[in-house]
Write the structure tokens for this entry.
Amino acid sequence: MTLYTSKLPDFYHFPPFFTIQPVLSTREKQLGQWRELLLKYHTDLKITTLVLHECPLWKNNSINRQLTKEEIQIVVDDLITSGYGEWEDEHTKTRVRILWRKPEQLASDIYDWAVANGYVNSICTVYELHSGEDVNGMSFQG
């Protein structure tokens, strides 16, 4: 993770961030920050799967803090409940498929692109949506 440390937000270096907060409003904000951090990390590094026991974000050596297994579970459950992840292994719950964007967001982006480029009621291949000439700069490109 040493290559990514320059991109870590300030709250990552705040010791209470590594203890799930008991006050509901504070916890909701904290879980939102974990969600934002996990999504940014996985998106920036183009990682599509979160392996729970391998994620370097759970531990911050510079402040000697880390999440417990129970706290990691709370953070991951929130990520999944919010629509940004899904279990790859439903029974063992060790791997989460990261959804960089919610399916609804992706569908909306593709529809807006289709409207803007005259592709509504046309057939497009996955390749065209992923790598076509008309998708430059779109959120679903590449």
Notes: The mean pLDDT is 88. Strands lie at 49-51, 59-60, 65-66, 85-87, 95-98. The two ends are 24 Å apart (CA to CA). The longest helix spans residues 24-44.
